[in-house]
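Two records follow; treat each independently.
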Amino acid sequence: MALIPSPKPYSLQIHKLPQYTYIDALRWLPHISTFTRHILLATYDADSSTSSLQTLISSPSQTIPSVALQASVSAPSRIASLKVSPSQLAPSKPLIAAATFSGSVLFYSADLINESLNFEFSVPDKGFHSGAVSGIDLSENGSECVSVGEDGRVNLVSLSGKRDFRRVFDSSGLVSYSSVKWASPVEFVTGAFGFGLHWWDQRKAGGPVALFKNNWTGGIASGIVHSIDIHPSRKHTCLAGGSSGIVVAWDIRWPKQPVMLSGVGAGDAANSLVESDIWEVQYDNYTHSSKIINSSSSRVLPAMICSEDGILAVIEQGEEPVELLAEPCAINSFDIDRQNPSDVICSLEWESIAILTRP
């Protein structure tokens, strides 16, 4: 692990809460009250080899926050990816999509008022993906779910009407996909093995409309794109994090000129905060930069990352990274509260979650 010491410009409130099961993914759920928060967990119990979805309730008004189990449902297979789409018509009943290692995608609704998790439907394993579904994302309006897998298949699941799926692309195993993110109602970006990024437009059949595959590490390492994010106001640019500490911004307007923010072999072009896998990357709306406000849209917005070597940090183009949390174990997943970006949750490999509050 290679760290660049960076001072913390603000004090953090950090609280760690044991959960006694392995946490594969976690997400904030929408607020329905100023006095309570809800957290969604995808858990795995190694002793019984069982998986489940759980909702926890927390009170942010407490000096030392605690969480209590609100609802729990068993999952038929271990969960590989977890997404939440707030319902515009019923904010207290968000839609949940969970991709599994067995090759299916499960859909649930969380009733936050009546404290229940309700199974809605699943996409059958047969013909959908061969092997694990490695990445999913829900469209902004909650009408479609895009899924990708190591089998090279890209599928779209309709969440209304017959609730069936259609195949967008099948590489027959020549390309293995690892992550996906919607860019617009008709566009999405996929991440692949070999640090590949593909931009898709449903209005144009036959495959991706733009490709990016480059030797980001100068031959030092190769790997996978684990996570992608796209900012709501800058849908032409995607942020990708993957192996060897790689974090790169890819602007579809200049597809051959990516901006490397972190990673092995970055040299003077970026501050290499970590050398291990970046498990998740998200734009950080909490971090405001005068340089960004006063600059053109070509400047990359601040981003938060979590890594295999236990780092949760904020990185910004041309700036020293800011380390928020350093743990002796992997930080597998994190989420920034959409409604209150000062609040962050993350899951630690040692069967616990951490809640961070930025002033």
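The next record belongs to a different protein.
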Amino acid sequence: MLPLLLLALSDVPGPDPVAEALARIDSLSGYRLTLRSQGSGGEEIIHYSYRRPGDVRMDMESPYRGAVLIYRHDTGKVQLWPFGSPGRRPALSLRPTNRMVRSSQGHRVDQSDVGTLLRNVQRLQQHGSTRRLEPATHEGRPVQHVVVEAEPGRAVHEVARYDLWLDDETLFPLRVASYDRQGQRMESVLLEDVQLEPDFPADHFDP
């Protein structure tokens, strides 16, 4: 049993999967998905849209069903509609650092995109190890399971280890788990119904 375990944990030769995934994502003009996050603050379900170079829209399903927020990179502000209906009701205009528009894990809207996540993983790589485990499947899709773990005492935003499940064809993350220095899981995120290069409505990111 031990030799099989060692094989599963061994490095797989080839290009750095994190850098390769980031290059793919940086080439996209946009994407949309459903994000399901489990952490110490409970479950969050968000219909998430991203448009380069940094516009974000979140339509909340849980815990604040119906709330909508839009971040525009050109203004640096977050427009929040607690009860939905962008464009029809006055919005709250907030800074991305405001606690009202940060997730239960403290994530900022302007730093919520997948590219920012992978850059944080790269920062952890600089002082740690990267392992690509044996091929696996997630929800029936072939994936690459990549583990990035920091040296003892190192962390990025309190994260000392990331587990990434990258779609084998697109390299887009389909699942991400983060752990602290004690090995306790901080957050588990599923990225579902991923659409790459979608046709957004003309006013999708309009406040």
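Discussion point: The longest strand covers residues 185-196. How would you locate this feature using only the token line?
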